[in-house]
Amino acid sequence: MTDPLALGLVGLGVIARNQHVPSLAATPSLRLAAVASRNAALEGTPSHRDLDAMLAAHPEIRAVSLCTPPQGRFEQAWTALQAGRHVMLEKPPGASLGEVRSLAALAAAKGLTLFASWHSRAAAAVEAARDLLSGAEIRRVEITWKEDVRHWHPGQEWIWSPGGLGVFDPGINALSVLTRILPQPVHMRAALLEVPANKQAPIAARVSMATASGAPVEAEFDWRQTGPQTWDIRVERDGPEILLREGGARLFVGGVEKIAAADEEYRRLYARFAELIAAGESDVDLTPLELVADAFLLGERRLVEEFQA
Ligand code: NAP
User: Fold this and answer.
1) 125: closest CA among 239, 27, 264, 219?
2) Which residues are near ligand 1 (CB < 6 Å)?
3) Which residues are known catalytic residues?
4) How far, in Å, from the CA of 220 to the mean position of ligand 1?
5) pLDDT tens-digit series, residues 252-301
6) 5-116 CATH choice from 3.40.30.10, 3.30.565.10, 3.40.50.720, 3.10.20.90
C-alpha cells in the first residue's frame, strides 16, 4: 500500500471538528498533517495561524481542505493551487459562481485536483434514489428543509452576511441532492425570500422550480424550526413515490423503507477526494449554487422580524 497523502485543513470550526477531523482519521489514503486556523488549535496536530504559515512549515502537504466560510475561501484556494496543492472546498464552493470558475481554470492549468464537495450528495440513499429515478417521468417534487439555526449555527455571523446565503446554506444541500437524483435539469421560476430586518440574508424561503419538461419542483426552506428537524425530498413519478428523509440517509419507495444508514458522508467525500487526486481529475459541479444565485436574482424580498441569536 502507498503512503497516505499529507493533507492540511484550514478553518477549525464546527464542521471541521465534528466531521472533517474524525473522517480524515478514518480515511487510510489521507493523513491529517497540520491545521491552520486563526483562533484555534487541534491537540496533537501541528497548528498554524494561517494557510501560508502551514504550507511554509509543511512542504510535504500535497492537498488542502478548506472548511472556512465561503467568503474569503477563494483567496485561500487560489493560494493553495498556486502553491501546487490539490484543493477540496466545503459547500457552497464559493461566495460567487465566477470565483469558483476561476479556481477550476487555475486547477486545470496547473494539472491539480479541485473538488467542490457537496456532502449531502454523499448521504447513504442518494445514489439509490438516482438509480430509481433514471428514465422516470417526474410529476412533482416537494422539498421540505426546516431546521433550527440557533442549534446548527450558534453565534455564526458570516451566514447572515452577503455571500453567506442565509437559509440557503442548508437549502443548497437539498438542491445538491435534487440535482443529483433527477434525470432532467431543473430551473428556478420564482422565489420569496424572508429576510430579518436586521440581517442581509434570508431566514426562510419558498422557491418554485420546474424540470425541463415542466413538472413543478416546490421547496420550502426555514431556519425557525425548533423541535424535530425536517430534511425531506418527495418525488412523485410514473411509479411508486420516492421519499428521501433525514437529508438522504433514509429512502422510502411507495411508503416502504428501503434504506436507513448511519452518517458517513464525510468519509465518502474524503475517499472521493483521494480518488480524484489519484486519477488526476477535478469535480466541480456548480448547478446547486446556480439555482441559489437564480433564487436571489428572481426572489421577491419580504422583511420579517429581527433575528436575535
Ligand atoms: P464555523 O463554525 O464558523 O467555522 C469556520 C471557521 O473558519 C471558523 O472557526 C474560523 O476559525 C475560520 N474562519 C476563517 N475566516 C473566517 C471568517 N472570515 N469568519 C468566520 N470564520 C472564519 O463554520 P462551519 O459551520 O464550520 O462552516 C464552515 C463551512 O462548512 C461553511 O461553508 C458551511 O456551509 C459548511 N458546512 C457547515 C455545516 C454545519 O453544520 N455547521 C455542515 C456542513 C457544511 P478561526 O477563527 O480559528 O480562523
Assistant:
1) 264
2) 11-16, 37-40, 67-70, 72, 90-91, 119, 152, 156, 158, 169
3) 91
4) 24
5) 999 999 999 988 999 999 999 999 999 999 999 999 999 999 999 999 99
6) 3.40.50.720
